[in-house]
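User: Here's a structure from my thesis project, written as structure tokens. My advisor, Dr. K., wants to see whether a designed sequence matches the one we expressed. Can you design one independently, without my sequence as a hint?
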């Protein structure tokens, strides 16, 4: 979606703050929010629908709250919309929830066990289709110049830019329609762009940017 939520390649937001703390989260609640978000994706609540809902957050709200706080806002919105919880249940304003018995917490597991479980339950989004890919490795392409009203995985900073097909990944769920509840598959490519073509101030750079882009985003150069 075109808006404040697509900041890739944008200037004027200051340096990225990087610290040396080894902990994965700044606050304890952030870890719980991340874990909750991983458990909630279902055939009805797809990652594309979740991203579309997150992109509906007002810009002044989206740009001024912590990253995982906007995740929590999106989670509650999608859970209420799906009927999993009510607005009243979500709006308890931090009041403590009393339980009669101790919570049945899962046993502590190792990082290795978690990674193994993730691999065993990984969701695959590819599918074999009859249509042949329009592009081949090494072919020059140009990305669509126009924006879209809904969710898309084509960043603004590469629109209307010439690139080349670096690799072909088969056919995968098309996120633009998946966000609308429509499951279709398109050919997916790894496309390489020269940084000098993306940002004029890097005209002497030999760096390159690789993006995975769906076929309808591309035309022959």
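Assistant: Designed independently from the structure alone:
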């Amino acid at each position: 979606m075109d808006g404040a939520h697509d900041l890739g390649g944008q200037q004027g937001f200051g340096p990225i703050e990087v610290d040396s703390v080894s902990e994965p989260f700044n606050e304890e609640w952030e870890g719980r929010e991340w874990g909750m978000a991983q458990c909630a994706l279902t055939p009805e609540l797809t990652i594309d629908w979740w991203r579309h809902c997150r992109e509906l957050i007002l810009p002044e709200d989206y740009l001024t709250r912590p990253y995982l706080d906007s995740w929590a806002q999106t989670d509650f919105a999608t859970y209420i919309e799906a009927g999993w919880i009510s607005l009243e249940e979500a709006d308890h304003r931090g009041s403590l929830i009393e339980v009669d018995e101790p919570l049945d917490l899962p046993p502590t597991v190792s990082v290795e066990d978690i990674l193994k479980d993730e691999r065993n339950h990984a969701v695959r989004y590819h599918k074999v289709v009859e249509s042949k890919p329009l592009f081949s490795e090494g072919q020059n392409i140009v990305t669509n110049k126009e924006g879209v009203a809904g969710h898309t995985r084509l960043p603004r900073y590469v629109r209307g830019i010439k690139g080349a097909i670096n690799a072909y990944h088969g056919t995968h769920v098309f996120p633009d329609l998946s966000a609308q509840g429509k499951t279709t598959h398109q050919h997916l490519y790894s496309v390489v762009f020269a940084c000098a073509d993306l940002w004029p101030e890097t005209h002497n750079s030999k760096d390159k940017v690789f993006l995975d882009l769906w076929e309808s985003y591309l035309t022959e150069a």
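When you compare it with your expressed construct, this may help: The longest strand covers residues 162-173.
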